C-alpha cells in the first residue's frame, strides 16, 4: 500500500490484480460515520497511442459494507464476463456474486463497457505488436500457378478415374508441380518440398510423408499410365483452346547419361547433338502441334538414327491425338528421306520438309515473280518455285540473308583453318625432320579433309612428287567455287501440298521452331539432361515426368503469349516466386496465442501474370488458429512454486 498526506486526507492505492478491470482504493474519511475507511473505484487500464499505460474510472463504488477480500472475487467475475469466459466451477460466494451482478448492471446501464460479440471479437483479434513473430516462410507463387494449371487440365480427375486413391493423386500432383518449378533429383526435390516450398499446403499431401523414395515411386506410377495420360491431355488442350492439330511437328533429340550404364538397353553410343559423344545417349522423339502442345512421345535407343524412327511413330500419331482432318507433318532435313515422305502420304498425311540435299538440276518457273518476305526480326527471305524432273513435289527455293551470313561466316572460318593446315603440311616439307614421304603426307591431307569435310566441295588438293618424296602441296579452288559460294543461304522446301503461293509452305515449315523451342525448354528449363538413373525403367519415368511438367509450362506460356507476355519459363518462375506464405504469431489481450498463416500480396508483375491467365491470386486468404494458454499448466506451476517456497 502506498500512502501520502494531502490536505489532511490520507490516500492509498491498492492493486488487487493485473487485469483489465481492478478496484482502486483511496483512504479517506467517511462522512456518514466519521471514520477513516477505503473509498473504492472500479478502474480499467489500457495503452494509448503512445504505448503508455493509462487508467480510467468505470464505476465509483464508494465505501463498502462487506469484507475487502470479496473484491478479488468480484473483480474476477467481472473480468470473466467481459472476456466471455465461462467459469470452471459454480461460484460459492453468493454475496460476492450478488455485488458482481449489481456492478455489472451499473456498467451496462451507464454504457461503460461494450459486451457485444463484435467488441469481444475485436479484442480477441487485437495482438500486442511486441509479441509478433514471423516464421515458416515458404515459396508459394509458382506452385499456386502450376496447381491451377493442373486443375485447368483436369489431371486430378483423370488420375482418380484410373482408380487412384486420394493420397496417391495428391503425391502425383505434388511431383509434377515440383518438377516444373524445381527440376532436380528426387533427393533434392524432397528437401526443397520440406524446407522451401508450400506445394504440399496447396495439394493437401502430408509433408511429413515426403521422401525421395515416395517421389521415385510416384514417377514410376505416372509412367505406367503414359499412353492414357498423354492422349487425355492432348484432347483436353485441344478442347480448352479450340485447336484442330492441322499442323503436326515431328523431330528427335538425344540426351546423355552420367555413368557407365553397362546393363542398359537404351543407353548407346552415337553422335551427340550436345557434343557429348563421350557419354552414352538416349533418343527422345516428340510429336507436337503448332502451338507447342505434345501429341505423342517415344523413347528410343541412343543409336537410333533420325530417319529410321518415323515408321515406329507414324501409325500412332492419329491414334494418340485428336486429329480428324488430313494433317500436315513438318519434318526436319534429317528425317525427310524419300522413303519417309512416301510413308507419310501412304498413311494419309501431307508433309512439308526441307530437302536433305540441295537440288541441282531444276528450272525456274517462267513468268513467276520472286516472292520477297520480311520476317518478324526484319530479315529478308526470297521465295521462288522451281521445277525438277526428279521430284514431283511442290518445291520452293528459299534464300535467307540471315542464313547466308551465318553460312558465310562458318565457311570463312573453316576455310581459314583448312588452309592453315595445308600450310603446315607444306612447311614440314622443308623442315629438317619434317614429314616428307608421299604416303605420310597423304595421310595428313586425309586427316585434314576429315576434320573439315565441307572444304571438299570447294578445293582440290594437289601433291607434287619427286619419287617417294613430296615437294609441294597445293589447295586449288574448284571451278564451281563461285557457284557454290552463291548457294550459301539457299535451301529447298518440299511439300505434297499444292499451295497457291510460295509463302504457304515456307510459313508452315517455320512452325518447326516450336518443337525446337520444346526441346530447348525440356533440356534447359526442366533439366532433362543429364540422366543419372541406373535402370531403363527409371530413365523412361524421368523423361516422362519432364514431359508432364512441360504440359504445365506450355499451357501457361501459350496463354501468356496470347496476352503479349513472351517471357521464358525461368523468368516466369522468378517473378511468381516473389509471392510467399508466412505464419505470424502474437498474443491477444486474453493471453491467447494467435497464429495466422497468410499469403503475401502478389506484386504488380505477379498480378499481371495471374490476370493474363485468369487465375486466382491466393490459394486461401488466411488460416487462423487460437492457442489458449493452458490453465492446468499455470496452476501446476503455481502449486510447484508454493511447495518450493514452503
List the helices and strands and how they pair.
Layout: E1 2-6, E2 9-13, E3 21-29, E4 36-47, E5 53-63, H1 70-82, H2 94-109, H3 117-125, E6 133-139, H4 141-153, H5 155-161, H6 166-181, H7 186-195, H8 199-203, H9 212-224, H10 226-241, E7 247-256, E8 281-289, E9 294-301, H11 310-320, E10 328-331, H12 338-346, E11 350-354, E12 363-364, E13 371-374, E14 380-387, E15 394-400, H13 401-428, H14 438-451, E16 459-466, E17 469-477, H15 481-486, E18 490-495, H16 503-509, H17 513-525, H18 536-562, H19 569-576, E19 580-587, E20 592-599, H20 604-613, E21 622-628, H21 631-645
Parallel strand pairs: 7-10, 10-11
Antiparallel strand pairs: 1-2, 3-4, 4-5, 6-19, 7-8, 8-9, 11-18, 12-14, 13-14, 14-15, 15-18, 16-17, 19-20, 20-21
Helix fraction, binned, reads: 40-55%
**Secondary structure tally, helices:** 21
**Shape verdict:** elongated
Q: What structural category characterises the helix and strand content?
A: alpha+beta
End-to-end separation:
25 Å
Average the pLDDT over all residues and give the rounded result: 85
Amino acid at each position: 500500500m502506498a500512502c501520502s498526506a494531502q490536505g489532511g486526507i490520507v490516500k492509498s492505492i491498492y492493486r488487487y490484480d493485473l487485469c483489465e478491470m481492478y478496484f482502486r482504493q483511496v483512504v479517506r474519511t467517511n462522512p456518514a460515520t466519521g471514520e477513516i475507511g477505503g473509498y473504492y473505484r472500479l478502474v480499467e487500464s489500457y495503452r494509448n497511442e503512445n504505448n503508455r499505460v493509462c487508467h480510467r474510472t468505470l464505476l465509483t463504488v464508494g465505501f463498502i459494507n462487506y469484507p475487502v477480500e470479496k473484491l478479488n472475487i468480484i473483480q474476477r467475475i467481472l473480468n470473466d464476463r467481459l472476456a466471455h469466459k465461462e467459469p470452471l466451477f459454480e461460484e460459492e460466494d453468493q454475496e460476492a456474486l450478488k455485488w458482481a451482478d449489481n456492478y455489472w448492471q451499473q456498467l451496462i446501464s451507464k454504457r461503460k463497457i461494450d459486451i457485444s460479440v463484435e467488441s469481444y471479437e475485436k479484442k480477441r483479434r487485437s495482438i500486442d505488436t511486441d509479441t509478433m513473430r514471423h516464421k515458416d516462410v515458404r515459396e508459394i507463387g509458382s506452385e499456386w500457378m502450376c496447381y491451377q494449371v493442373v486443375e485447368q487440365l483436369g489431371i486430378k480427375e483423370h488420375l482418380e478415374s484410373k482408380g487412384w486413391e486420394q493420397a496417391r493423386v495428391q503425391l502425383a500432383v505434388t511431383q509434377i508441380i515440383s518438377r516444373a518449378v524445381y527440376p532436380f533429383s528426387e533427393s533434392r526435390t524432397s528437401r526443397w518440398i520440406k524446407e522451401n516450398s508450400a506445394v504440399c499446403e496447396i495439394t493437401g499431401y502430408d509433408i511429413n510423408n515426403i521422401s525421395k523414395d515416395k517421389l521415385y515411386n510416384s514417377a514410376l506410377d505416372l509412367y505406367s499410365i503414359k499412353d492414357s495420360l498423354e492422349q487425355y491431355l492432348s484432347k483436353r488442350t485441344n478442347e480448352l483452346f479450340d485447336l484442330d492439330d492441322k499442323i503436326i511437328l515431328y523431330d528427335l533429340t538425344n540426351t546423355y547419361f552420367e555413368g557407365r550404364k553397362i546393363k542398359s538397353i537404351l543407353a548407346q553410343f552415337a553422335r551427340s547433338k550436345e557434343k557429348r559423344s563421350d557419354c552414352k545417349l538416349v533418343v527422345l522423339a516428340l510429336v507436337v502441334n503448332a502451338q507447342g502442345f505434345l501429341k505423342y512421345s517415344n523413347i528410343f535407343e541412343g543409336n537410333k538414327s533420325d530417319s529410321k524412327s518415323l515408321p515406329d511413330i507414324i501409325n500412332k500419331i492419329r491414334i494418340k491425338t485428336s486429329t480428324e482432318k488430313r494433317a500436315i507433318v513438318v519434318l526436319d532435313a534429317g528425317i525427310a528421306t524419300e522413303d519417309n515422305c512416301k510413308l507419310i502420304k501412304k498413311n494419309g498425311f501431307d508433309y512439308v520438309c526441307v530437302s536433305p540435299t540441295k537440288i541441282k538440276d531444276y528450272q525456274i518457273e517462267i513468268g513467276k515473280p520472286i516472292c520477297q518476305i520480311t520476317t518478324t526480326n526484319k530479315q529478308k527471305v526470297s521465295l521462288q518455285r522451281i521445277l525438277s524432273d526428279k521430284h514431283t513435289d511442290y518445291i520452293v527455293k528459299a534464300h535467307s540473308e540471315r542464313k547466308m551470313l551465318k553460312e558465310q561466316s562458318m565457311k570463312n572460318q573453316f576455310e581459314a583453318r583448312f588452309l592453315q593446315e595445308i600450310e603446315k603440311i607444306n612447311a614440314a616439307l622443308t623442315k629438317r625432320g619434317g614429314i616428307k614421304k608421299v604416303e605420310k603426307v597423304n595421310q595428313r591431307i586425309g586427316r585434314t579433309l576429315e576434320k573439315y569435310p565441307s572444304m571438299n566441295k570447294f578445293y582440290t588438293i594437289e601433291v607434287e612428287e619427286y619419287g617417294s618424296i613430296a615437294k609441294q602441296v597445293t589447295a586449288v579452288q574448284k571451278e564451281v567455287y563461285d557457284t557454290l559460294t552463291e548457294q550459301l543461304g539457299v535451301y529447298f522446301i518440299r511439300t505434297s501440298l499444292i499451295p497457291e503461293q510460295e509463302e504457304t509452305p515456307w510459313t508452315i515449315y517455320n512452325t518447326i521452331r516450336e518443337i525446337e523451342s520444346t526441346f530447348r525448354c525440356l533440356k534447359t528449363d526442366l533439366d532433362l539432361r543429364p540422366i543419372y538413373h541406373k535402370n531403363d525403367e527409371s530413365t523412361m519415368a524421368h523423361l516422362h515426368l519432364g514431359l508432364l511438367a512441360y504440359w504445365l509450362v506450355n499451357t501457361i506460356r501459350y496463354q501468356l503469349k496470347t496476352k503479349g507476355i513472351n517471357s521464358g519459363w525461368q523468368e516466369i518462375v522468378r517473378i511468381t516466386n516473389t509471392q510467399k506464405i508466412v505464419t505470424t504469431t502474437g498474443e491477444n489481450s486474453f493471453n491467447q496465442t494467435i497464429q495466422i498463416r497468410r499469403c503475401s500480396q502478389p506484386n504488380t508483375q505477379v498480378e499481371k501474370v495471374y490476370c493474363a491467365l485468369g487465375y486466382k491470386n491466393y490459394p486461401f486468404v488466411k488460416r487462423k488458429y487460437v492457442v489458449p494458454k493452458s490453465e492446468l499448466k499455470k496452476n501446476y506451476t503455481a502449486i510447484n512454486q508454493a511447495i518450493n517456497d514452503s
